[in-house]
Amino acid sequence: MKVEHIAMYVNDLDATKDFFVTFFGAASNAKYHNPKTGLETYFLSFEDGARLEIMKRPEMDSPEKTVTRTGFIHIAFSVGSKEKVDTLTRQLSQAGYETISGPRTTGDGYYESCILGPEGNQIEITE
User: Fold this and answer.
1) Please, which residues have CB within 8 angstroms of residue 123's CB and are 6 or more apart in sequence?
2) Distance in angstroms (rounded) separating the CA atoms of residues 29 and 32
3) Tens-digit pLDDT profile for residues 38-86
């Protein structure tokens, strides 16, 4: 069994798509729009076959996001080396995204950093 894809609602669909394409090498399909429901989506595919569906619809709720809330909390990307973690973290910081931890080696041995991506969604970058 494998996870087929993960999905998340976002307010700015195109900015979120551009973020993952620019910084994480995602390939995007054409935007899907259901005029009856107002749903708009992109599927973003990553090099290893993982997929992320980003979605927007008129009746979404946007509660405050805290890094310690319950439910899904972050998405993690392995970039292959400590140097790549450092480089990508620096690029994201220079682009205005907040680094909330790292880069560092965690107590369980991961080398990682965490940033807040579009709309405050937490992104973990690992080696």
Assistant:
1) 74, 75, 76, 77, 114, 115, 116, 117
2) 8
3) 999 999 999 989 999 999 999 987 777 777 766 778 899 999 999 999 9
* Helix %, strand %, coil % of the chain (to 5): 20, 35, 45
Pairwise CA distance, residues 40 & 42, whole Å: 7
Backbone angles phi, psi at 44, to 5 degrees: -110, 125
Where does the chain have alpha helices with state H? Answer: 13-24, 82-94
At 68 the pLDDT is 72
| Residue 1: per-residue pLDDT | 81
Place of tokens 């993952």: 20
* Cα 30 from chain centroid (whole Å): 19
Beta bridge partners of 55: 9, 41
Question: Nearest CA to 97 among 81, 111, 124, 118?
Answer: 118
- Residue 33's H or E segment, with its range, is strand 32-33
DSSP letter assigned to residue 30 = P
β partners of residue 45 = 27, 51
